[in-house]
């Protein structure tokens, strides 16, 4: 068990001070902060299994287990919570419809194994090759297309309860602008609660399974199926998710390093390895794939407490919650309308995160290579282009991601060989000062 030194008197964090990963406050305060991390991760973590129809309790179990595993592999130096990754929703939904849950779990396991291998390579070679494979225009396109590919799924749920969905969506937007700080960051969670109450008032809830569920009991386990012929075409749908998880993990590590210690960047390979192993184990027993959570970075920024002790608490609490079938049954009562309202916002936000990558890196969209990399990939994903050879099928996400990589790298090679100026020339030069108030010339 890790040992933490007490920060100061264990009760206060001075102005400009911070509690570092290997420090902690008093245990009552640490437990309280850990509980806050559970609240921060809960809204997103339970939504994934609710949307994909995976057992909520099983996903919570492997979320908590994965968090503790992550802390061990990163030598207790990288504070992070591993929650359900939204990048898996589209391939899980498609795979389940085409070949069943077992094949979807096989896809999750495959992503985990590949991500773990990437982690080993990064630990040995560093992250430079990742940046070359996925420059900002490609990374942004892949993240955006995964969210936008899900738009039809959001509408499918929304139209089953348009009034409830509208109330949920309005509440999410309202709370995001009404509150500041932590409450603003969990606006989706609060919006779902409002939508749930609205559904209850309209008589849309069915508690028969909740009443029948036991208070204490083990989660439901399911296992991957690699034998079904359609599984291997399903696995292809999951491959772009690896690129998203790499981007999420690398970004998370860099964010934590900025807030704590630049030396944390050396743990990037271990972080990828840990997330890969966590995703593999989750998929092997019926849980959804995991990723490092930005929501919890927000909690750390607000509290200035980066202690990994709080994450041990959060992981343990998640495991304890997973041992109640009744809690899982309650989450399964969430009506389609509520999910439709939440996912309308959520899937759009995933798309916007991809666009934000372009903005943050000042991608030059006057260059044809960048234009077509983004344009073609997004249309393929939104329309969900498919190609099929017998039982093997490629859908919009994998085709869009493949198109982004192919157009960018081949397009650059041709443009640079011909010196046409159509290649990616790097970020747009800044015009004037970045940030601050505008100043008259």
TrEMBL record:
Care to name a GO molecular-function term for this sequence?
xanthine transmembrane transporter activity
The listed locations are: Membrane
The residues that cross the membrane are 54-73, 80-99, 105-125, 137-155, 161-179, 186-203, 230-247, 309-331, 337-357, 392-410
Q: Which Pfam families match?
A: Xan_ur_permease (PF00860)
Q: Where is it mainly found?
A: membrane
Gene Ontology annotations for the cellular component aspect, listed alphabetically: plasma membrane
The superkingdom listed in its UniProt entry is Bacteria
Report how it sits in the membrane: Multi-pass membrane protein
Keywords annotated in UniProt: Membrane, Transmembrane, Transmembrane helix, Transport
Indicate the family of this protein: Belongs to the nucleobase:cation symporter-2 (NCS2) (TC 2.A.40) family.
Q: What is this protein called?
A: Nitrate reductase
Source organism? Microbacterium mangrovi
């Amino acid at each position: 068990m890790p040992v933490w030194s007490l920060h100061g008197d264990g009760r206060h964090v001075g102005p400009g001070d911070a509690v570092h990963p290997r420090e902690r406050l008093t245990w009552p305060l640490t437990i309280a902060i850990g509980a806050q991390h559970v609240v921060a991760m809960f809204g997103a973590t339970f939504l994934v299994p609710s949307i994909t129809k995976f057992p909520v309790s099983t996903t919570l179990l492997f979320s908590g287990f994965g968090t503790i595993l992550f802390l061990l592999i990163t030598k207790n130096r990288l504070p992070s919570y591993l929650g359900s990754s939204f990048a898996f929703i589209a391939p899980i939904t498609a795979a389940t419809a085409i070949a069943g849950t077992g094949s979807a779990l096989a896809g999750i396991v495959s992503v985990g194994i590949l991500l773990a291998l990437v982690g080993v390579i990064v630990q040995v070679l560093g992250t430079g090759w990742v940046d070359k494979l996925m420059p900002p225009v490609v990374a942004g396109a892949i993240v955006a297309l995964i969210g936008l590919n899900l738009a039809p799924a959001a509408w499918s749920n929304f139209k089953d309860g348009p009034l409830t969905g509208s109330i949920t969506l309005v509440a999410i937007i309202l709370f995001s602008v009404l509150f500041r700080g932590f409450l603003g960051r969990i606006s989706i969670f609060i919006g779902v609660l409002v939508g749930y109450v609205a559904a209850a008032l309209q008589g849309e809830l069915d508690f028969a399974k909740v009443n029948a569920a036991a208070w204490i009991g083990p989660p439901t386990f399911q296992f991957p199926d690699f034998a079904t012929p359609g599984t291997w075409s399903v696995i292809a749908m999951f491959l772009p998710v690896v690129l998203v998880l790499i981007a999420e993990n690398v970004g998370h590590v860099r964010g934590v390093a900025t807030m704590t210690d630049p030396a944390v960047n050396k743990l990037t390979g271990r972080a990828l390895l840990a997330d890969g192993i966590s995703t593999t184990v989750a998929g092997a027993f019926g849980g959804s794939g995991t990723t490092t959570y930005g929501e919890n970075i927000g909690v750390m920024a607000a509290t200035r407490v980066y202690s990994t002790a709080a994450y041990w608490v959060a992981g343990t609490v998640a495991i304890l919650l997973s041992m109640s079938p009744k809690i899982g049954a309650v989450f399964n009562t969430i009506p389609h309308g509520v999910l439709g309202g939440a996912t309308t916002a959520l899937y759009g936000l995933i798309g916007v995160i991809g666009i934000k990558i372009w903005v943050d890196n000042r991608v030059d969209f006057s260059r044809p290579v960048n234009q077509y990399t983004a344009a073609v990939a997004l249309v393929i994903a939104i329309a969900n282009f498919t190609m099929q050879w017998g039982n093997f099928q490629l859908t919009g996400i994998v085709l869009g991601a493949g198109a982004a990589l192919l157009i960018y790298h081949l397009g650059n090679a041709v443009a640079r060989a011909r010196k046409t100026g159509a290649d990616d020339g790097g970020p747009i030069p800044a015009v004037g000062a970045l940030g601050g108030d505008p100043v008259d010339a």
